[in-house]
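Thread: quick sanity check before group meeting

JM: Hey all, I'm pulling together slides for Thursday and realized we never actually wrote out the predicted structure for the chain we discussed last week. Dropping the sequence here so it's in one place. If anyone has concerns about the input, flag it before I start.
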Amino acid sequence: MAEPLVFLPGLMCDARVFWPQIAELSATTAVTVAPITQGERIDEIASGLLDILPMKFALAGLGLGGMVALEIVRRAPNRVTRLALMDTSPLAGTPQASAMRELLIVKAKSGRLEDVMRSEIPLAALAQGPNRAAVMEILLDMADTLGVEVYLKQARALQRARDQQAVLRKLRCPTLVMCGEADTINTVKRHSFMAELIPTGFLRVIEGAGHVPTLEQPQAVTDALIQWMQMSAAPAMAR
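JM (edit): ok, ran it. Output follows.
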């Protein structure tokens, strides 16, 4: 059996964002979805997770979860055997993005969480197709389940995100960089840049998907993860 696989969900997402992958991969792999709901800084979230995760594991993060995954690798490279970064970013937040998110924080505090989520992940960030509205409904339902307090923590964590490009350059484990071709939030161009920085990185662009390919094109994502899990494991980073 392969090493345990830990999924880290994106902004205001829970295990449902990975349910198609869990359904297939759990037949042969111990799969865990670790919440990223504790802490107002990415390093706090990562530190808390390292206390409860297995000693060695494969790690796959989506969106904000990918940012937390990079911090976990930075802190504990010998514990991560392979890494998947999905529709995410290694860059620090800009002052402009922080100011815009501050307005969303005010709106969330006033009870308008659904409006906030439609701004964070607009419909245009999902690929056009018959499942587009259904995926958006799942995103909104997950956000409603997690609630305003979790949004406030995660928004603060995004505002305080550090630049992780140095971590990418040091990676030595099999690293899957994956994104939807129609993602307007973290674009294909950004993921190509990430993959080029990683010595052991390889890029997979999922056709017919946007910012949430795990739900938009679940089988294509699962197939890419299976290929990644079959690669020889290695310590995450060079010393």
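AS: nice. The mean pLDDT is 95. Residues 1-239 form a domain with the Rossmann fold fold (CATH 3.40.50.1820).
JM: adding both to the slides.
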